[in-house]
Structure formats: structure tokens, C-alpha cells
Design a protein that fits this description.
single chain; alpha/beta; Rossmann fold; six-stranded parallel β-sheet; 22 helices; 43% helix; 14% strand
Length: 551
């Protein structure tokens, strides 16, 4: 069967022919000129290797030649490829001869078997050993580096892994398939960046099928609030100990909700969170590495004419209404703690629940270790979720009483007491990317945090990218990175009584709406797309590897 053409080298005064892998391996000068790579092939082989700084196109074409044909064609016959399937690989400016030499050492190590089959391994090794260029590396350092590459030590695998696939778990229908959408969009962004992505659909595939990944190397293994990293084999070992590569679990809820899984998880797991406080909590109480990484949005619907004044894409819970009876049935000591905790949260609406709960225990003269605090905090976790729902309802009722029409979505609103207001317009649930159309139709997109105090949500990013003006309660991150009244409307829960007037003034001022939505759109376009998110993620992976090496 004829091989797919993976790359074309347009060179001066040459004949058209296929360049074989062996030919390229033994003589890098056969490539050159203007090099075009098939877009899908770039992703299939893992893209340009970011861990090398010399001879990047040469190293890339060697990987492509293992899978597809490399064609040499006369430059004078060159035609521009206009179908978007081809990318020009711009010849890099090598930082130094030393960097090119390092790449040659890596190539010798990676294709050692091929060099041996061709009977020229010793010759290539000797050539690298006797290189006469003036390098910063001393002769002994050079020998050690070459030996590291040829014997596949740690620094070799760092380079090798940079072009290995990224494994992503998907198939999770939690939160109206939002997490599944995150997984898909992140994967698509990696592919656009030239990365190879492999998917494991947890909904469709038996968990035990991950054994097919045992022993394989990945640039990263990623889950969206998945429990896969806690899964164990029959012998009691974590399944992911047998999958090679850094593991990342995005955790969008407060980490205390995943206590059992974060206490019992594979070594080396890194947690990514949408709230800086969550990352601090993970580090302190679970002893895991953690990073704050704001979620991204999708640009899809840009409606010039808006149909709705205000929409809120979120559920509504019962708050404390359904919990009072349960609280009364608790023992006296527990009731005292819970009552103090509620009062603390209501009096300190910008503070994290964990900080306030520590204050409650200290004031009641409880003595506790970090582990004991984590266990106690787990028992009251429902309280700050109920608090978020309590304030969510208060905010919405303020708007409804002021006569502002609010569009809401999903079954949770069918039994909500706010249904008594005729200006609460209830719609069916919107799944996955369906929320984008809602934002596009809305002049204002309301966001009320589920008790994030230093966070950012995809609801905000998506609204900005659909040119809907965001109205959100304050968090430290939002207050630091956005200008209130210019990029979005930011209100404080302590002063929520001002919100109806703020929204009414905005609804009456169409020019201000357009000005704010356009400015927010440009910010989101530059900082909060999945493409930007994927680039930030890859930088985190490289940073984590650097710190692991340093430690």
C-alpha cells in the first residue's frame, strides 16, 4: 500500500524522489530548502520537540519518516499549498553548534538500533566523541552527556517524552457534561499545537482496559475530576503506577469533596484547580503538588441582536432549608460547631470556609492535627455548599423583586420557591456546549460562585467569548485581574442590595453594554481560550519536570 506523504522538501536543482529514513538518518544534508509538513502528521508524531534547541526540523523529519513518505521536489516547481493541510517548518536558527551536537547525541541514542543494523553505530559514536568544535561543555561533561543519551538515562527520557502522546480521560457526564466538554476541548487544543492525543472513554470502555497503557510513556496523563487515579489492581497497587508520565487531575469542586480519592491516589499526582485557595488546600492537607489554572471558554455564537436581558446557567439547591431538621438531630457539641460556622461565614463573606472553620475550632478550644482538621472539615463540607446556594437564591430574588427578567435552566428550578415570580423564565437544561447559545442570546450573563474565594469559572470565560456582559460576585482573582465596571460588573455579597440598580443601569445603556462586552471579548480571546489553556498546561508540565530534577 502506498505510503501517505508526510512532508515535502522543496530544494533547488534536485530530482523528485522519496527520501528514506536510513538516508536521512545518515546524511542530514539531504533535507533542506523549504520544508512543508502535513498538519495531521505533525500531530501524529508528537509535534516539534520543545526539549531540543538545535536541528529541530531534522529530528522532526526522522520521526515522520518512520510513519510516512518524505518527498524531495524541485524548488523551481514549487506551488503554494492552499488547502490548509500543510504547515511550513521554518528552519530554526541553532543557538550554538553545541546544541546541534546535543541533538545528534539524542538521535544516536534514540535510533541506536538502526545505527547498529546499518553497521555504523561505533563510527557515529566516535565522531561525536571527537567533535572539535569549541563548546562550553568540558570534554568530561560531553562524554557524560553522550553516555546519558546512548544509555537512555533520565535526561534522555525528558527529551523523548516531549513528543509522546497525551492521554486524556473523557466520558464523564457530571455537571451536564461540562467536564466532558473540557476534556474534548483541551484535547483538540493540544492537537492544534501539534501534540498527539489518545483518549480513554470511561463511559464506553471497561476500566480494566487501561492495561493496554501499562509500560507506555506519555507526555502527560490528564483527567477531569476523575477517580481513575485512585483505581487499584487486585494486588493493591495503583493502576497508574504502571503508566509512565506525569499525572494531572483537574479538580473543580472544593478538594474536601474528593477527600477519599485525594488521600488514596497514585504517587506524584498533581492537582489542577480553578481557585488559588484550592491549590493551597491540596498542598497543605493532602501533601500533593497543585497548581491554580483558570478554566477556558469556547467561542462559537456571536449574536449581534440579544434576545434576553439576564440569564443564569446554574442550578439552585435547597440551601439550609432541608438541613435544619438534620442539624437539630445532631449532638449538642456538633450543633454548637455548626452554628458558629454558619455565623462565621455570614460575617466573613470573602474568607475561605477552611480558614473560618479553623477559627471556629480555635475559639471553641479544640486541639487538632492537620489530619484531624481535614476529617472534621469533611463532615461539615455540606455547610459551605448550602451557604453558596443560600446566597445564590438571595441574589436572584433581589433581581426578581426588582422586576428584572432572569432566564434559568434545568430541573432544579422546577421545585424552587422562586418559581412564584413570573419574571423567572425556566427552560430545559442545556448540556455541554449548549450553554454557549444561551450566553450569545443574553445581554447579561449572571455568575454566582459556589463559594470560590480566589477563583475563576468557565461560565465567565464562555460569556466573555460570546460577547455577553458578565455580572459576577467578587473573588480575589477576579478583583485582581479585571476592572470593575469596564471589563465586567463585579459585586460584593455584603453589598448585594446595590445589584438590581447596577443591572438596570446597564440594561438601559446599550452603548456601555457593547463597549464592555467587546473589551471582555478581547481579553478572553487573548487569555481564556482552550488554545491558551493548553499552552499554559504544557508550560506547567515543563516547570514540574524542572523542579523534580532540582529536588
Amino acid at each position: 500500500m502506498e505510503k501517505m506523504v508526510g512532508a515535502i522538501c522543496w530544494k533547488k536543482e534536485c530530482e523528485e524522489r522519496e527520501l528514506t529514513f536510513q538516508e536521512i538518518l545518515l546524511d542530514e544534508t539531504v533535507i533542506g530548502g523549504k520544508i512543508y509538513v502535513k498538519r495531521e502528521m505533525l500531530s501524529a508524531v508528537g509535534g516539534i520537540n520543545a526539549e531540543i534547541h538545535g536541528k529541530l526540523s531534522y529530528e522532526l523529519l526522522l520521526r515522520i519518516a518512520k510513519h510516512a513518505a518524505i518527498i524531495q521536489r524541485p524548488l523551481e516547481n514549487m506551488r503554494q499549498e492552499k488547502d490548509g493541510d500543510w504547515l511550513e517548518v521554518v528552519p530554526e536558527t541553532c543557538k550554538s553548534e553545541e546544541e546541534g551536537w546535543k541533538t545528534d547525541c539524542y538521535i544516536l541514542g534514540r535510533y541506536k538500533g538502526e545505527f547498529m543494523k546499518l553497521g555504523c553505530f561505533e563510527q557515529a559514536l566516535a565522531g561525536l566523541m571527537s567533535a572539535e568544535e569549541e563548546f562550553q561543555m568540558q570534554p568530561a561533561e560531553r562524554r557524560n552527556y553522550l553516555e546519558d543519551m546512548v544509555t537512555a538515562r533520565e535526561c534522555y527520557w525528558k527529551i523523548f517524552d516531549a513528543t509522546q502522546p497525551i492521554l486524556i480521560y473523557r466520558g464523564d457526564e457530571i455537571c451536564y457534561s461540562v467536564l466532558d466538554t473540557f476534556a474534548e476541548k483541551l484535547g483538540e487544543a493540544f492537537i492544534q499545537l501539534g501534540k498527539k492525543v489518545e483518549w480513554f472513554d470511561a463511559e464506553k470502555e471497561d476500566f480494566r482496559r487501561i492495561v493496554k497503557y501499562f509500560g507506555k510513556r506519555f507526555q502527560a496523563v490528564i483527567g477531569m475530576q476523575t477517580f481513575m487515579f485512585s483505581a487499584k489492581m487486585q494486588d493493591g497497587t495503583f493502576a497508574h503506577e504502571k503508566i509512565i508520565g506525569p499525572k494531572y487531575n483537574y479538580v473543580f469542586d472544593h478538594p474536601i469533596w474528593l477527600k477519599n480519592h485525594l488521600e488514596n491516589t497514585v504517587n506524584g499526582l498533581c492537582v489542577l484547580t480553578p481557585d488559588g485557595n484550592y491549590a493551597d488546600f491540596v498542598k497543605k492537607y493532602y501533601g500533593l503538588q497543585a497548581h491554580f489554572l483558570p478554566p477556558a471558554g469556547i467561542e462559537k455564537h456571536l449574536c449581534e441582536e440579544k434576545e434576553w436581558d439576564v440569564s443564569f446557567v446554574g442550578s439552585i439547591g435547597e440551601g439550609f432549608d432541608g438541613k435544619l431538621k438534620q442539624m437539630l438531630q445532631c449532638d449538642r457539641a456538633t450543633r454548637i460547631i455548626e452554628n458558629h460556622f454558619i455565623k462565621k461565614m455570614k460575617s466573613n463573606l470573602k474568607e475561605t470556609p477552611e480558614k473560618l472553620f479553623r477559627e471556629v475550632l480555635d475559639e471553641l478550644d479544640y486541639k487538632y492535627t492537620d489530619c484531624e482538621f481535614r476529617d472534621l472539615f469533611y463532615e461539615v463540607r455540606w455547610m459551605f455548599y448550602a451557604m453558596s446556594q443560600y446566597y445564590r437564591k438571595k441574589v436572584l430574588e433581589l433581581l426578581l423583586k426588582a422586576g428584572i427578567e432572569v432566564h434559568v435552566f434545568g430541573d432544579s428550578w422546577k421545585t424552587c420557591s422562586l418559581r412564584k415570580y413570573q419574571n423567572l423564565i425556566c427552560h430545559d437544561a442545556v448540556l455541554g456546549e449548549g450553554c454557549l447559545e444561551v450566553y450569545a442570546k443574553s445581554r447579561i450573563s449572571l455568575n454566582i460562585m459556589t463559594w470560590h474565594k480566589d477563583g475563576f469559572t468557565e461560565r465567565i470565560a464562555n460569556s466573555m467569548l460570546q460577547k455577553s456582559v458578565v455580572v459576577t460576585d467578587w473573588t480575589k482573582y477576579i478583583g485582581t485581574h479585571f476592572k470593575a465596571g469596564e471589563d465586567m460588573v463585579i459585586f460584593e455579597l455584603e453589598k448585594m442590595g446595590q445589584l438590581p440598580q447596577m443591572i438596570e443601569e446597564l440594561l438601559y445603556d446599550e452603548e456601555r453594554q457593547k463597549r464592555m462586552s467587546e473589551k471582555a471579548y478581547q481579553i478572553a480571546k487573548n487569555q481564556y481560550t482552550w488554545h491558551e489553556h493548553a499552552e499554559k498546561f504544557l508550560k506547567l508540565v515543563n516547570m514540574d519536570k524542572f523542579h523534580q530534577k532540582e529536588s
